[in-house]
Amino acid sequence: MSENPKIRFGIIGCANIARKVARAINLAPNSTLYVIASRSMEKAHKFAAHNGLSETVKIYGSYDQVLDDPCVDAVYMPLPTTLHLHWAVLSAHKKKHLLLEKPVALDVAQLDHILEACESNGVQFITGTMWLHHPRTAKLKDLISDSKLFGPINYIHSSSTGPGTKEFLENNIRVKPDLDALGALGDLGWYCIEAALWAKDNQLPTTVTALPDVTKNSAGVILSFTASIQWEPLDHTVATIHCSFLSNTSMDLSISASNGTMRCNDYIIPYAENSALFEFTSGAKFAELHIGWSVSPEEVRVISQLPQEALMVQELSRLAEGIREFGYRPDRKWPDISRNTQLVLDAVKKSIDLGCKPVSL
Fold it and tell me: Per the database record, which ranges form the Gfo/Idh/MocA-like oxidoreductase N-terminal domain (predicted)?
């Protein structure tokens, strides 16, 4: 398969995150950046110049031109969430594999339209959550899946926060109801919900409840929230998530089980690009007189040959190659992860709208 042409990507929209993914597309061994597009040629040319893109990269002044280009195999779409439904469905109908930035939709009904379009047109769908593709994530899953070393999971906590500046809180698209109406719930909550589901092998919870600490701006967009997620009575796992545009930067994930604990302080974006750490403790007890612990946390370091965003692009390209070369069907793993994440996100929003009442799934 390595002798076959690389998957050619088009980028629709020159958002800031597109700079990172443009680099990732060129770092991945099985993809290449073919075209970028903005709503104006001027903005697209500025993006290309600012990011030192090759002169061979085509530049378009409309999104339709990318979708109509027969040489484009896949599209990365970092548009505001309110635009996803239209452009993602159109991309699928144009037979373009889709890397869609999160949050992928305003609700699960919209996402179902997108996923149906991808499925019926035989194109692969992946959400742009990069941390799932880091080799550290696979190592974490191996350890927490060890029933003897770790045991059944009791508690999960995840946070994703950042100190929004005055400029951000007034003008960023994430605080504008006509662009990204879900605010911190969509932008940050997607990670935390996805992490809790990942720890539970994508098993949907039974109950979701927002806590009464919700902060909204004057337009009604969520700036900060906390929620609990329960899998009871099916099992006894509880998760808490906290997301905010009003706090210091945090990307914490901790998982506690009957015999082990795992902690990761940078699970969304690792502190370093080529390696990442986490702490793992198994069988810890207090020493005699409770003056210490029987074991210290083990620090586990995982090396990554490529940045996690390049590994994400590589995965989509690998799946696209399989569809192109061997007629494979699109992999359902990634759409299923996104749909369950959206279902829980919708439940958190419903709980907030109901005055923080429990919502059953």
Answer: 7-128
Kindly report the backbone phi and psi dihedral angles of residue 114, in degrees, each rounded to the nearest multiple of 5, phi listed first.
Answer: -65, -45
Instruction: Count CB neighbours of 248 within 10 A.
Output: 8
Domain boundaries, given as residue ranges, for the chain? 7-128, 132-307+342-360
Low-confidence ranges of the chain (pLDDT < 50): 1-2
Pair of tokens at residue 59: 């530049």
Q: Which fold has domain 7-128?
A: Rossmann fold (3.40.50)
Predicted local confidence at residue 3, as pLDDT: 64
Exposure class string for 54-73: b at 16+ Cβ within 10 A, else e: eeebbbbeebebbbebeebb
Predicted confidence (pLDDT) per residue in 240-287, tens digit: 999 999 999 999 999 999 999 999 999 999 999 999 999 999 999 998
pLDDT, residue 1, reads: 42
* pLDDT value of position 2: 47
Does domain 132-307+342-360 fall into CATH 1.10.287.130?
no
Percent of the chain whose pLDDT exceeds 90: 96
Q: What is the 3-state secondary structure (H, E, C) of the chain?
A: CCCCCCEEEEEECCCCHHHHHHHHHHHCCCEEEEEEECCCHHHHHHHHHHCCCCCCCEEECCHHHHHHCCCCCEEEECCCHHHHHHHHHHHHHCCCEEEECCCCCCCHHHHHHHHHHHHHCCCCEEECCHHHHCHHHHHHHHHHCCCCCCCCEEEEEEEEEEECCHHHHHHCHHHCCCCCCCHHHHHCHHHHHHHHHHHCCCCCCCEEEECCCCEECCCCCEEEEEEEEECCCCCCCEEEEEEECEEEEEECEEEEECCEEEEECECCCCCCCCEEEEEEEECCCECHHHCCECCCCEEEEEECCCCHHHHHHHHHHHHHHHHHHHCCCCCCHHHHHHHHHHHHHHHHHHHHHCCCCCEEC
